[in-house]
Amino acid sequence: MNENKGLFASICGFFKSLFSSSPAAESKPAAPADGLTGVERYIRNKSQGGSNLTGVEQYIRKKTTNGKPLTGVEQYIRNQSQAKPMTGVERYIQSKG
Questions:
Q1: What is the rounded CA–CA span in Å between residue 63 and residue 68?
Q2: How would you label 70-89 residue by residue, b for 16+ Cβ within 10 Å and e otherwise?
Q3: Residues 28-65: b if buried by 16+ CB within 10 A, e if exposed
Q4: Global pTM?
Q5: How far, in Å, CA of 42 to CA of 46, rounded?
Q6: Nearest to residue 77, comparing CAs of 96, 95, 59, 89?
Q7: From residue 47, how far is each of 32, 44, 50, 60, 72 by CA, in Å?
Q8: Residue 67: helix, strand or coil by DSSP?
């Protein structure tokens, strides 16, 4: 009977140490030296990272500078930026449409 009590006590001791919340049992990740959260560091890096272009603008610039043929969307964007001003009739039709 004493053997069972000793075995039970050792099992209880094992689980107590396993689920203990003492500082020695906890392992927290090291806090960054700057004291910022990951999100704050990401935003700071993005704001200091140079380019303010959107992904679409970067894509179009890459496609137009490498000498490859333009896609239909790129041609449309270029044509719209170079389009002549609308006449009064065109503006009227567009506003009523």
A1: 7
A2: eeeeeeeeeeeeeeeeeeee
A3: eeeeeeeeeeeeeeeeeeeeeeeeeeeeeeeebeeeee
A4: 0.23
A5: 6
A6: 59
A7: 20, 5, 7, 22, 33
A8: coil
- Cα–Cα distances in Å, from 22 out to 11, 17, 19, 31? 19, 9, 9, 19
Q: What is the pLDDT of residues 44-60, one digit of tens each?
A: 877 776 667 778 888 87
- Please give the Cα distance from 27 to 24 (Å, whole number): 8
Q: Which tokens hold the place of 58?
A: 């970067």
pLDDT at residue 7, as a whole number: 78
- Whether the per-residue pLDDT at 16 is higher than 70: the answer is yes
